[in-house]
């Protein structure tokens, strides 16, 4: 063992640059694997602990207007699968009436309601994950606003309308299991009962959140069906616990998935590099291996000798990766910790990464053993003659006239030795892919056209008229104003309500249907097209999956006591309302309309922001939002996390490019020592040889950048679509920033490689033919 360690140490000193580069490769693989699993462990621990205390509802129905409380109580008692129920009374206040640091919250997309602390379940927690309590004159502010607006404890929130004004001191930040993340469009402020009664006497509109906990094994769909069939209060949106979980946690899980995916790619690249280095090393050590086999060294000992180096490297890289993954994982876990807390299952943050590191080390060791075993299987004579290596050398013929000798020779050598460059090609492809994918994802989400994945066509401004006793009057007022506004180019009004449809089991389920002219702001359909007549219905991707309906199939629909038959005209993507919606020309009764939504485009040259402010001032009972801001705020958490991933991916990619270039050039110059010396003897300068090596590497990089860019725009779309498929979008079209994707990023990669080639090939000036003659 002592002899093995000495031999390994001697090899380390002889090949410092290659060993260092390989160690960094393995370190990055270990870091990302352990870091991604630490983020995963933190997410699971935080969410589980948070939900254990907060106890979120498994079904939630919003309702505006009066209802019969006794009838609701009777419904709960009659259905024994309901474990518990709760009616949360919430005072909705317009954003224009909530002031922070001299500005209203009018630019915020969220609907804001003021509540008192619940009893039993759906508890609002403070930042220590304890049940939050506030005194008179105090307010608990959603943690969302702490992140978006910088609100902190001790700040003052002012509620103002007319002559009424009330200042509330922020005493705590609120974590809300039902309405935590950006994807949930409502937020709750916690106040005392006295303050709520005082505020309600001057402003606001009451809304009720009717919530349920179910017995184990009971599906939320069963409760939803019974609830709607028995006519329970439902003037508002209904949400299942599963959907709440997806909306609150999608951005955390997306980051962990991307980090782990990157680490898997890195592990594959590291093993490819190992394979290349081991084969290159073994080719140079053939004679020594033949000697050892000739004097009786057991095959097992020879394998152990050459494997020892890589065992030490993988263990060292694994240990370093595990240690650095702690701050790395904590950094990328900061969002889930802020919204959900640290969690109580601390072991998950340590055990998951440790298991990942151990599996990585085992994978590397077994891979090394397999490669070494394959390379020493030749006979003693073959090994000592080096016959196999000689047979694999390629050859090329020089033309009679060398117009550009460096280019001709470089491309000729590349042609006959292309296998040596397979690894660097794949690393360059991966690096280009890794830079572009997070960038393209972020650009896609930030682009206003991303609204099409929310089930509507692209437009400039959205107006929400929802859940009000004066819904029709508000709708008429909006339409009347828009029709007279010459700065508005076009608009469309959609009304939304619920109908029943017969599922594959013959049971009737409720589905949210949007009715309006789909031709004004057309959607891209996955299959088929929008409804063209009264007998057609388009359904969302997830609704199609769940119901098994395809384009051309019939759907039995019940509304207003009548049973109708629709033909499925098309399937579209929608990540709102759990991804289960439909579009059809249904003449809803005014009392059955849940919400009106207006989408509009302004004339060319009209400022969208100014028009938004103007509409907000006039249509004070409606919520007016620019589409760009709507997408940004709805997916804000995902965008901010993707920016972090984008930066980390770029740094890792550039580091990979430098490392692989240094490593490959070291191996090439070592293996071609004699060929380089001969070239210099016949008149090639050190500069010529450096140019030839540079041309080889750059030719590989050009091909790799093109391949990586194509993969980012094709495979990247598939990967991103897979991530969003659980929300209702299966096919995403990546929106590329051409200057960054096709000019700046490739140029940065080429410049880095050029600098690395210049520095790494300086060694050729020391190569001389006399050294080869002496040898």
UniProtKB/TrEMBL annotation:
InterPro entries hit by this protein: ABC3_permease_C (IPR003838), Membrane_comp_ABC_pdt (IPR038766)
Chief localisation class: membrane
Membrane disposition: Multi-pass membrane protein
Spans traversing the lipid bilayer: 252-278, 310-330, 350-368, 421-439, 648-669, 697-720, 740-764
One family from Pfam that matches here is FtsX
Entry's localization field? Cell membrane
Which PANTHER family does the annotation name?
BLL1001 PROTEIN, MEMBRANE COMPONENT OF PREDICTED ABC SUPERFAMILY METABOLITE UPTAKE TRANSPORTER
Q: Which residues form the ABC3 transporter permease C-terminal domain?
A: 261-370, 649-762
Q: Please report the name of this protein according to its UniProt entry.
A: Putative ABC transport system permease protein
């Amino acid at each position: 063992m002592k002899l093995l360690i000495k031999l390994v140490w001697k090899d380390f000193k002889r090949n410092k640059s290659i060993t260092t580069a390989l160690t960094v490769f393995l370190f990055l693989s270990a870091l990302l694997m352990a870091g991604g699993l630490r983020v995963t462990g933190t997410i699971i621990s935080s969410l589980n602990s948070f939900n254990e205390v907060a106890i979120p509802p498994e079904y939630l129905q919003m309702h505006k207007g009066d209802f019969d409380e006794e009838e609701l109580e009777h419904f709960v008692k009659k259905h024994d699968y309901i474990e518990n129920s709760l009616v949360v009374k919430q005072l909705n206040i317009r954003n224009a009436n909530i002031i922070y640091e001299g500005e209203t919250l009018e630019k915020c997309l969220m609907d804001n309601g003021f509540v008192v602390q619940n009893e039993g379940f759906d508890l609002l927690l403070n930042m220590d994950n304890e049940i939050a309590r506030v005194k008179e004159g105090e307010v608990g502010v959603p943690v969302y606003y702490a992140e978006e607006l910088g609100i902190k404890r001790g700040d003052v929130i002012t509620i103002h309308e007319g002559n009424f004004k009330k200042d509330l001191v922020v005493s705590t930040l609120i974590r809300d299991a039902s309405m935590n993340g950006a994807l949930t469009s409502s937020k709750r402020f916690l106040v005392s009962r006295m303050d709520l009664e005082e505020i309600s006497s001057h402003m606001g509109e009451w809304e009720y959140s009717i919530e349920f906990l179910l017995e184990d094994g009971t599906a939320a769909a069963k409760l939803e069906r019974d609830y709607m069939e028995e006519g329970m209060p439902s003037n508002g949106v209904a949400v299942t616990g599963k959907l709440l979980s997806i909306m609150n946690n999608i951005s955390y899980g997306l980051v962990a998935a991307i980090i782990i995916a990157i680490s898997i790619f890195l592990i594959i690249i590291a093993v490819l590099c190992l394979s290349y280095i081991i084969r290159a090393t073994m080719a140079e050590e053939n004679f020594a291996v033949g000697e050892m086999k000739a004097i009786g060294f057991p095959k097992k000992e020879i394998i152990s000798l050459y494997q020892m180096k890589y065992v030490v490297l993988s263990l060292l890289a694994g240990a370093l990766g595990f240690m650095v993954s702690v701050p790395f994982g904590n950094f990328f876990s900061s969002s889930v910790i802020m919204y959900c807390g640290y969690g109580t299952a601390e072991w998950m943050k340590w055990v998951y990464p440790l298991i990942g590191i151990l599996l990585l080390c085992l994978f590397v060791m077994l891979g090394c053993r397999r490669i070494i075993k394959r390379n020493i299987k030749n006979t003693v004579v073959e090994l000592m003659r080096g016959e196999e290596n000689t047979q694999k050398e390629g050859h090329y013929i020089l033309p009679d006239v060398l117009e550009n000798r460096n280019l001709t020779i470089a491309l000729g050598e590349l042609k006959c030795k292309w296998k040596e460059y397979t690894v660097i090609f794949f690393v360059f492809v991966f690096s280009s892919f890794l830079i572009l994918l997070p960038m393209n994802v972020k650009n896609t989400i930030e682009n206003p056209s991303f609204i099409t994945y929310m089930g509507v066509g692209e437009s400039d401004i959205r107006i929400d008229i929802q859940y009000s006793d004066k819904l029709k009057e508000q709708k008429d007022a909006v339409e009347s104003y828009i029709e007279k506004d010459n700065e508005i180019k076009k608009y469309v009004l959609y009304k939304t309500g619920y109908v029943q449809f017969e599922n594959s089991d013959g049971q009737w389920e409720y589905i949210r249907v949007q009715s309006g002219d789909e031709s004004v702001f057309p959607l891209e359909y996955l299959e088929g097209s929008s409804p063209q007549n009264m007998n057609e219905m388009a359904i969302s991707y997830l609704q199609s999956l769940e119901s098994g309906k395809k384009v051309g199939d019939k759907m039995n629909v019940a509304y207003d006591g009548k049973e109708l038959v629709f033909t499925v005209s098309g399937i579209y993507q929608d990540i709102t309302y759990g991804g289960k919606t439909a579009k059809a020309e249904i003449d809803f009764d005014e009392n059955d309309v849940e919400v009106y939504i207006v989408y509009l485009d302004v004339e060319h040259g009209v400022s969208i922001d100014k028009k938004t402010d103007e509409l907000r001032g006039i249509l004070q009972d409606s919520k007016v939002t620019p589409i760009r801001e709507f997408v940004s705020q709805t997916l804000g958490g995902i965008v901010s996390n993707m920016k972090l991933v984008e930066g980390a991916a770029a740094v890792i990619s550039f580091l990979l490019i430098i490392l692989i270039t240094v490593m490959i050039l070291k191996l090439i110059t070592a293996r071609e020592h004699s060929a380089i010396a001969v070239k210099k003897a016949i008149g090639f300068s050190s500069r010529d040889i450096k140019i030839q090596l540079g041309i080889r590497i750059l030719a590989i990089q050009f091909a790799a950048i093109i391949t990586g860019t194509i993969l980012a725009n094709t495979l990247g779309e598939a990967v991103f679509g897979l991530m969003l498929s659980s929300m209702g979008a299966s096919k995403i079209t990546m929106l590329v920033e051409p200057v960054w994707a096709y000019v700046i990023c490739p140029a940065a990669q080429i410049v880095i490689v050029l600098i690395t080639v210049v520095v790494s090939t300086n060694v050729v000036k020391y190569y001389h033919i006399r050294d080869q003659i002496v040898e």
